[in-house]
Write a structure and sequence with these properties.
mainly alpha, elongated, 2 domains
Amino acid sequence: MARSIEQERAQLEADEQRLNERRRQLADRERSELLKEVERSGLMKADPAEFSAIIGAIKKLGIAETVKRLTA
Protein backbone atom coordinates (compact mmCIF):
# COMPACT_ATOMS: atom_id res chain seq x y z
CA MET A 1 0.00 0.00 0.00
CA ALA A 2 1.22 3.44 -0.83
CA ARG A 3 1.33 5.84 2.06
CA SER A 4 0.37 9.43 1.76
CA ILE A 5 3.02 12.12 1.85
CA GLU A 6 1.67 13.33 5.18
CA GLN A 7 1.98 9.85 6.70
CA GLU A 8 5.52 9.54 5.40
CA ARG A 9 6.47 12.93 6.88
CA ALA A 10 4.89 12.02 10.21
CA GLN A 11 6.82 8.75 10.25
CA LEU A 12 10.08 10.53 9.43
CA GLU A 13 9.45 13.06 12.21
CA ALA A 14 8.78 10.26 14.71
CA ASP A 15 11.95 8.45 13.60
CA GLU A 16 13.94 11.67 13.96
CA GLN A 17 12.61 12.24 17.47
CA ARG A 18 13.55 8.69 18.50
CA LEU A 19 17.02 9.13 17.02
CA ASN A 20 17.49 12.45 18.81
CA GLU A 21 16.49 10.79 22.09
CA ARG A 22 19.01 7.99 21.51
CA ARG A 23 21.72 10.57 20.80
CA ARG A 24 20.86 12.40 24.01
CA GLN A 25 21.02 9.15 25.98
CA LEU A 26 24.38 8.30 24.41
CA ALA A 27 25.74 11.75 25.29
CA ASP A 28 24.54 11.28 28.87
CA ARG A 29 26.26 7.88 29.07
CA GLU A 30 29.48 9.31 27.62
CA ARG A 31 29.42 12.14 30.17
CA SER A 32 28.82 9.69 32.98
CA GLU A 33 31.75 7.53 31.86
CA LEU A 34 34.02 10.59 31.64
CA LEU A 35 33.08 11.62 35.17
CA LYS A 36 33.81 8.10 36.42
CA GLU A 37 37.23 8.29 34.73
CA VAL A 38 37.96 11.60 36.46
CA GLU A 39 36.98 10.08 39.81
CA ARG A 40 39.22 7.05 39.21
CA SER A 41 42.14 9.29 38.23
CA GLY A 42 42.41 10.71 41.73
CA LEU A 43 41.84 14.24 40.49
CA MET A 44 38.81 14.54 42.75
CA LYS A 45 41.09 14.03 45.75
CA ALA A 46 42.85 17.36 45.12
CA ASP A 47 41.89 20.20 47.39
CA PRO A 48 39.47 22.70 45.83
CA ALA A 49 42.15 25.32 45.09
CA GLU A 50 44.36 22.79 43.29
CA PHE A 51 41.42 21.41 41.38
CA SER A 52 40.38 24.91 40.30
CA ALA A 53 43.94 25.69 39.23
CA ILE A 54 44.12 22.53 37.12
CA ILE A 55 40.76 23.19 35.49
CA GLY A 56 41.76 26.81 34.89
CA ALA A 57 44.97 25.73 33.18
CA ILE A 58 43.07 23.31 30.97
CA LYS A 59 40.60 26.04 30.01
CA LYS A 60 43.43 28.46 29.28
CA LEU A 61 45.50 26.04 27.21
CA GLY A 62 42.70 24.07 25.62
CA ILE A 63 42.35 20.31 25.57
CA ALA A 64 44.72 19.62 22.68
CA GLU A 65 47.55 21.75 24.07
CA THR A 66 47.09 20.28 27.56
CA VAL A 67 47.33 16.74 26.20
CA LYS A 68 50.34 17.69 24.11
CA ARG A 69 52.19 19.13 27.13
CA LEU A 70 51.29 16.28 29.46
CA THR A 71 52.40 13.61 27.02
CA ALA A 72 55.59 15.37 25.89
